[in-house]
């Protein structure tokens, strides 16, 4: 009986211990009482504001003089979801995207973390942009499929705005999509699949040695008719998830797919 | 008795939990029924082919017009083993190495992942190159010694071909070797050891800020008489494994040493 | 009773398993009997020397002819602590800092590993510099506060020397400080806080896409009156630790804070 018991416990324990660490764990909402703190989100994302950026910092950050206030989005895991979320925020608020930087991160994963700066003349605008971004993350993590070996990410917008333009060179106002495959080899296949699936314009291609921060990803950026872009992305997703599955467990979406 | 039982169980559990994650876990062979899929290998390596690369992808990937088909090798863990394996594939098939890119990866380890593209006029050649590469991996992971703190990697070929030339600047047709130490400090020592151990030509040196993708490695590339190259590598290995052991457990080879 | 027992054991086990992996585990001192080996330290740091660097290695490492001997510090986790420690070593010994390279590392964390080379005419000087560096690490890891989501690092010296000058552009002989926030967003806030807290000179700013090796950090370098620099750093720390805590557990110092 003792052995049986041990076995049962071991089983329970290993189940708990081996639970696949999703690459983008849900942040438990915490607060810290600072006026600079706006909130947190999926992927170790934090949202912050500075009402009056100190002139010396303004200078070393090379910010435009006209922005007294900045909104800040930073994350360990993910750049695509945060940038797409920031794109919605720019549409919804009186702010501009000042910079988008990609760290080679994802907490040991194959991809990027990010640092996004919004500029605003008024702190309430900066704060609002950060709030919208954090809220949108729930959606934009919907088509991130991850397992222990890598991830597939799809993003889509019917009308790209300035965050997508800044980060990806997307034509503003047009339907835009991106697809990421990690490890990068899978990204090559899904790029080919996507282009063949519908009549879309290829506006960019990024790989470990060019266009990424040495992440293990191939990323394709597409634009065009909104139906075609979606069709492309869906074709890419199907192939990508299948291929990624050959290297590990069944890749599961981080939240709820939206494309 | 209860306490004893708990203790015993805790012991069992911790043993299981603390098992050193080897940095290059063996892939369990899986299949996915796609014609693009060739297979998987050690180090989360995946092998893929595209029979007819879409012209738009051809363009953004800057491929030579003459390659209708490409073979693709991608991995989360390892670049050396995959490149050396690809070198054998190039010798054995009617393909060329189009590009070798190093991602800063290894799933939280100190080294690289990779993306290797073979070009071929015929898809069967591309597929064959990928198959040979995947098969050779079993051997080329033989002199990768890893523990929790880093890794030592040795690679050797009696006759370097075009993958080694493309990736490492190796003189084609001559004996060639490389040695990697991670953390990088160990790489400096084994480089010095190797050069002193035999009369070899130093053809390159890579470090975190130059020649790597910011990996925590120092890599030395050597060429020369085949006996001398091997002697150098063996000297480097002995020292490297000893030094790496001071930072963690006994570094063990991923498969079976071949040098 | 069986269920109760299982529950109790599960609790124990999960406590053990979930213990936050500090990003800079203490190295257990090991020895390896090689003359090149000096010792190990926190953060998977290893200290090594080469008495007579081989001429071919000398050349590819681009070392100055006058240094026959080199001291080597390498680490998986941390660059700031090692560089600050090396700064003390340079003051205390007859050596020079030849190079400081930052790997994108920290074993899956958001920051850097490092490779630091000391040059000396005599091996005993090189060895002494490495010894001092390893010893100082205990102190310089004192204001590194880490949790699962990132880290806050503060460093301070009343009188910067050549390691700080080489790595950070610090004015030699003056009080110098740096603060790191990871994820990078937090670094922006603490930079602003620090500058507003006291009258200091901003001498540099590094972010994922500029000045770091694509790490997920924002780093601010400050100089000035020693009291002002310390006051700045303390203000930055308080804010940084609070913000980092919103993303995970309470960030704890790796050793004992010294600022």
Automatic annotation (TrEMBL), chains A, B, C:
* InterPro entries tied to this protein: BMC_CP, BMC_dom, CcmK-like_sf, EutL_PduB, PduB
Tell me the protein's name.
Answer: Propanediol utilization microcompartment protein PduB
User: Which controlled-vocabulary keywords does the entry list?
Assistant: Bacterial microcompartment
Q: Where in the cell is it found?
A: Bacterial microcompartment
Name of the encoding gene: pduB
What is the native source organism of this protein?
Answer: Alkalicella caledoniensis
The lineage, from the top, is: Bacteria, Bacillati, Bacillota, Clostridia, Eubacteriales
The primary site where this protein sits is other
Checking SUPFAM superfamilies in the record gives:
CcmK-like
Q: Which GO terms describe its cellular component?
A: bacterial microcompartment
Recorded GO molecular functions are:
structural molecule activity
- Could you tell me the superkingdom of the organism this chain comes from? Bacteria
Which Gene3D superfamilies does this entry report, sorted A to Z? Answer: 3.30.70.1710
All copies of domain BMC circularly permuted, residue ranges: 36-149, 155-251
Name a Pfam family for this protein.
BMC
Look up the signal peptide feature and give its range.
Answer: none
């Amino acid at each position: 009986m003792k052995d049986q018991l041990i076995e049962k416990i071991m089983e329970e324990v290993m189940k708990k211990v081996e639970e696949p660490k999703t690459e983008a764990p849900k942040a438990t909402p915490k607060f810290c009482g600072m006026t600079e703190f706006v909130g947190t989100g999926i992927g170790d994302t934090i949202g912050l504001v500075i009402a009056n950026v100190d002139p010396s910092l303004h200078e070393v950050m090379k910010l435009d003089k006209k922005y007294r206030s900045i909104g800040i989005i930073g994350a360990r895991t993910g750049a695509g979801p945060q940038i797409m979320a920031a794109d919605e925020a720019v549409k919804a608020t009186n702010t501009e995207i000042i910079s988008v930087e990609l760290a080679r991160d994802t907490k040991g994963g194959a991809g990027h973390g990010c640092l996004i700066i919004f500029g605003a003349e008024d702190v309430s605008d900066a704060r609002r942009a950060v709030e919208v971004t954090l809220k949108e993350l729930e959606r934009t993590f919907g088509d991130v499929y991850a397992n222990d070996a890598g991830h597939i990410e799809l993003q889509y917008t019917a009308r790209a705005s300035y965050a997508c333009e800044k980060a990806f060179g997307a034509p503003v106002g047009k339907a835009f999509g991106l697809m990421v495959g990690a490890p990068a080899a899978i990204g090559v296949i899904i790029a080919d699949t996507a282009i063949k699936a519908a009549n879309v314009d290829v506006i960019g291609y990024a790989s470990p040695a060019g266009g990424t921060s040495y992440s293990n990803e191939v990323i394709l950026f597409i634009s065009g008719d909104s139906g075609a872009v979606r069709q492309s992305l869906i074709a890419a997703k199907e192939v990508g998830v299948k291929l990624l599955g050959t290297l590990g467990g069944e890749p599961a979406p981080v939240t709820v797919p939206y494309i």
